[in-house]
Amino acid sequence: MKNFFITTPIYYVNDIPHIGHAYTTIACDVIARYKRMSGYNVKFLTGTDEHGQKIQEKALSKNITPQELVDDIHLNFKRLWKILNISNDDFIRTTEQRHVKAVQAVFKKLLDQGDIYKGTYSGYYCVPCETYVPENSMGENKTCPQCGRPLKIMEEESYFFKGSKYIPDLIKFYEQNAKAILPEIRYNEIMSFLRGGVHDQSVSRTSLKWGIPVPGDEKHVIYVWFDALVNYMAALGYPDENSDDFKNFWPCVRHMVGKDIIRFHCVTWPLMLLALGINLPAEIIAHGWWTYEGEKMSKTKGNVIDPFKMVEEYGLDQFRYFLMREIPFGNDGNFSESALVGRINSDLANDLGNLLNRTLQMINNYCGAKVPECDNAESDLSTMSEKILTRVDEAMNKYAFDEALKIIWEFISRANKFIDETTPWKLAKENSDESKAKLNYVLLNLYEALRLSGLLIAPFMPRTSQRIYSQLGIEQDPVTMLYKNFKWGNSAGNVIKKSEVLFPRIDLDEWQKAQDAKKAPQNQTQEQEPEHEPEISIDDFRKIELRVGKIISAEEIKKSKKLYKLEIDLGYEKRTVCSGIKNFFKTDELIGKNIILVTNLKPAKLCGIESNGMILAASKKIDGNAEALTLVIPENLDGIPLGSRVS
Q1: In terms of CB atoms within 10 Å, which of 372, 374, 456, 640 comes out highest?
Q2: Is the predicted pLDDT of residue 418 greater than 90, yes or no?
């Protein structure tokens, strides 16, 4: 039996799961289920990344230990995977002892053979992304190219991985294995990056404690990305390379990741494996990002898709189908609830649901609920079925999930057309042996088309396929079957069990009313005339001293539900300011932001802390309460020093 090992990235537990996590994991689940049904011995791994500076800072802000924090948050992912019906075989956490053991073994081996060495690192560092950013990769105003946040200059003693030594070998491998990175656009991106030269990488930190200690030098902890990548081998028993799991599954490992982390997976990780003398992943598959209704998702805009809510509102398999069908895997895509409703009504209710309902109704009415016998079941549908299995397999082997579903729906559409062409209701009215035989032939072919359709959709919509088979009178769960065992025309005598409608149609008028109702309070607020303060003179305005500052630290005030204690750098001095923005920002989102500060307010004591100033912000209010808030941030400070007067 062939082996197949598929992994999601391990998800960082600094936040709740979102549509990106759901998308990757559902895609891995679909391919894992498909390969099992294709006769493969499959291992499907997912998990959580639980070390690093962001975790340490968040735990500190909540006055709990990092371990307590990750023990709580990782459960959100496990809960979502259960709701999404994910069939993973293992769930690994980077705080587990098996992972810690594997990471330290990798580090020690590379250190002992001279591929890790100690030095000093100085550079621009992104705290949220926990990575140093080369100057040629920075965004405008020295910002992180991934998250857009300001970078900090950091210098620390560090261990370095001599990855540059293995660059020629990695380039050669990719030249000989062009399909090792999918899609092609990501392969080209990585090859361009590699040919541009790669420096040795810093793989330890002394500036934080929440991580895996460097063996023999515990003032250093291992860099979170070096740590995280080892999970894929740790789950197979590494450092025991003779374990059955490692010997069986590592040669056929596939990593599925978002396009934002391909350099870690296509450069850093393979270089580590080359240094260890371990074969490289068979494939690294990168997918795109989702927008919402054409806009980039962000917490500030309030348009982040919650997969829990989508499943609750529209149904599990409906949500799974939409994500896999809507865009070519690898491309960016737009998540639109109206498009989701359209797919439910058209593809699922009209096409698949209608085919099931019509066919079972006719078998029930014309054949006493029993699938009729037929001497020869060959038809356009049976001929098409042989090609469909091959075409779907070709698409799935390219991770072209949308293409596979299009092919399946071609078959479903052909089956619906077969009903219209053969008019079984007319045959049932004719009282002749010939018409009876023709009716049996039609109904048996339609039943077989449904049996094959249920089998084909099983990886994508496992519960729906099971419901179809239950109504077809087949007790076995389709996901436990093998495609190679499917034979057309041997179902005569099966007794159907017609029950509920597979996919109830969504009333578009009612749905639109519900959507409008959700937006009504926001629209109403935007249309109201704002309240204005009394007019002031220019002299009154000049009395307000506004200056450019930068937030250099932010921490919670435990006595307050709304206040943060901020330290503001004005260039000529530093000030403490208490600001009521706790409900809108996390501390790590504030550090490094340039702001406008009112500097000549009288000091005020808030929760026992003297506050010297007020930062400017804009808010959206409903019923007098702020619902959203954004800081007033100067766009371009090139050549403008901190402390400059704003007028």
Answers
A1: 456
A2: yes
